[in-house]
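for the recovery benchmark. tokens below, seq after
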């Protein structure tokens, strides 16, 4: 199965009203188990590496492993850079063969976020790579050695509808991550998503919408969010937490065990279960069945998007072409300044 970029993958999700799960890779063991979950669920999947997790994995080292894994499964896979913060990181990901990148300029003023995102879009689109941006600010924190501090969303940082329209028009990005009461890491109390705001943004911008901070949101709220236009859901804390709960239980029951492989196997088995469960809740399970339009056929350059309603076809990003193309684009941009 060929790699697919996020624009083409989420076009299908948007049309058929489901969301694709995006699961962060922080350990090589994650790769096979997430891939197995996708294959067994007949589900497309997004495997992503966040810049904040570069402390665990080197981008250039993990990219060939992710690409090889994607090409050896029977479902479409998008390989995505999550929360990239600089142009340097964007170009590193593109050169490494990622089919999609996220530039997160949400901490900057709107004008600067628009300017930077537009520059990333121009470069990425020149080589067929899709771009996710973020507007508003999704708070919280990534999981580290200790449990993250629980957070609640602050309405002052929610995405404004009028800003979303301008951001979309002036950047030309492919997908938009929005803030509607969602936070990264752990929630303090029950999440309260602003579905009215989500609906208004969906009606105002005609691109797939992304929900970050998925861990902790109820199944009912997930399904409602998907029905209202969410097409991609980021989910990491929940899979990490499930794996660690399994680890804690194993160590309590086997305090003298010295077999790390058995411990890791148990943890990853739990991770896989959670991923498969999320694919079911998000509605992506079964989308790659033989009778579905997403995977009617596949080849080295197509992920089955033959249906004329969802043209153009998803094209594989050919790594050999990337270095020359991206270098030329960057040089052209520099010469214009």
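predicted aa per position
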């Amino acid at each position: 199965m060929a790699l697919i970029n996020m624009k083409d993958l989420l076009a299908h999700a948007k049309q058929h009203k489901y969301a694709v799960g995006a699961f962060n890779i922080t350990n090589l063991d994650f790769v096979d188990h997430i891939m197995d979950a996708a294959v067994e669920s007949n589900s497309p999947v997004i495997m992503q590496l966040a810049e904040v997790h570069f402390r665990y994995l080197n981008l250039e080292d993990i990219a060939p492993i992710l690409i090889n894994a994607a090409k050896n499964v029977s479902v479409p896979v998008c390989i995505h850079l999550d929360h990239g913060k600089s142009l340097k990181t964007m170009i590193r990901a593109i050169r490494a063969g990622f089919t999609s990148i996220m530039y997160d300029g949400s901490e900057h003023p709107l004008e600067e976020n628009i300017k930077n995102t537009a520059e990333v879009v121009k470069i990425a689109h020149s080589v067929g790579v899709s771009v996710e941006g973020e507007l508003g600010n999704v708070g919280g924190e990534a999981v580290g050695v200790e449990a993250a501090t629980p957070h609640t969303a602050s309405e002052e940082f929610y995405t404004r509808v009028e800003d979303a329209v301008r951001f979309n028009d002036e950047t030309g990005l492919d997908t938009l991550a929005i803030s509607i009461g969602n936070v990264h890491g752990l929630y303090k109390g029950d999440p309260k998503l602003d579905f009215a705001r989500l609906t208004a943004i969906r009606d105002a911008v005609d691109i797939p919408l992304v929900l970050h901070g998925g861990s902790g949101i109820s199944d009912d709220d997930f399904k409602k969010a998907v029905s209202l236009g969410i097409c991609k859901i980021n989910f990491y804390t929940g899979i990490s937490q499930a794996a660690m709960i399994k680890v804690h239980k194993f160590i309590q029951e086997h305090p003298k065990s010295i077999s790390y492989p058995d411990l890791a196997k148990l943890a990853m088995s739990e991770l896989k279960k959670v991923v498969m469960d999320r694919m079911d809740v998000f509605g992506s399970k079964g989308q790659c069945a033989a009778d579905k339009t997403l995977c009617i056929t596949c080849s080295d350059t197509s992920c089955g998007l033959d249906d004329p309603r969802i043209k153009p076809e998803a094209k594989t990003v050919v790594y050999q072409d990337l270095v020359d193309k991206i270098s030329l684009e960057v040089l052209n941009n520099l010469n214009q300044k």
